[in-house]
Write a structure and sequence with these properties.
GO molecular function: tRNA(Ile)-lysidine synthase activity
Helix content: 40-55%
Distance between the termini: 74 Å
Shape: elongated
Pfam families: ATP_bind_3, TilS
CATH architecture of the largest domain: 3-Layer(aba) Sandwich
Subcellular location: Cytoplasm
CATH superfamily of the largest domain: HUPs
Order of helices and strands: HEHEHEHEHHEEHHHEEHHHEEE
Low-confidence stretches: none
Largest sheet: 6 strands, mixed
Strand content: 15-25%
Strand order of the largest sheet: 3-2-1-4-6-5
EC number: 6.3.4.19
Family: Belongs to the tRNA(Ile)-lysidine synthase family.
Amino acid sequence: MPSLSPAIAEIRLAVRTALADMPEGSTVIVALSGGADSLALAAATAFEAPKLGLRAASLTVDHGLQEGSDAVASQAARAAAALGLDPLIVRVDVAGEGGPEAAAREARYGVLRDAAADVRAAAVLLGHTLDDQAETVLLGLARGSGATSLQGMAPVREDADGVRWVRPLLGVRRETTRAFCVASALTPWDDPHNRDERYARVRVRERVLPVLETELGPGIADALVRTAEQLREDAEAFDEMIHETIEDIVEHAEAGISASVAALAANPAALRNRIIRLVVDSEFGVSLTRTQTIEVARLVTDWNGQGPIDLPECSAVRRGGRIVFTASGR
């Protein structure tokens, strides 16, 4: 018998590991664009899922942003059916803030979330690779948005709607997914947007990472991903500490929520700032910038009688021994 391609073996193992804890008889959905990454993921899932007693389906979202997108979606669905997956295509209208790329992403995840809820899927599988993770970390570094962005994408994440998002290929290089497709006689679609240097991610992929590899030596992408993993471990430890602390120092207030000044002051700055961000996010559904967070923290650490601080959807003021967050307009 011919030996199994190393690329096929690597990706099948990654998928098998990701599916190992799924309940027998449940359904998993592969987000399938037709590109090499998602096509390799779909093929490996079609092979591994039945062996674990799982039903596997694919969902392809046609955003209609490019000419011929309907043909691309149909081709992806045919490939999924040939692999033994239950294929579904959904056409969505893209509209929203942040440009077409952000709007398309939001629409795509909305469709995937709805589909997962409809069939009570155990997970939605996404085809992000190690290279995607490295690019995400670099983009987060460029934005200066702190450790949360530098953690990159989580291998497994459950959202507020109970949908479980799983990325089996985060430890796999992009070149391996292409080798998988070649070895499996699969023809992936090459999205022209992936070569359009108007997009920051494409510039990172085509220009920044190659320069870093040349100037600093090989292994930059792997190093960035290791950094993301370490930061994620730290963040998880911080989150546990915050949730334990927050129960003792936070109280509901009229039209808002409040936190003890003394307790905030007793915590190190890293914990204090995270508590402030978590309180505002959980109560008002907004994310504070670092500048906004520091301004609120000054109500604790540098109190000189300053008045209320206007924040998105709310305001913060020191009142007695507490920092009170109140919804805007109250």
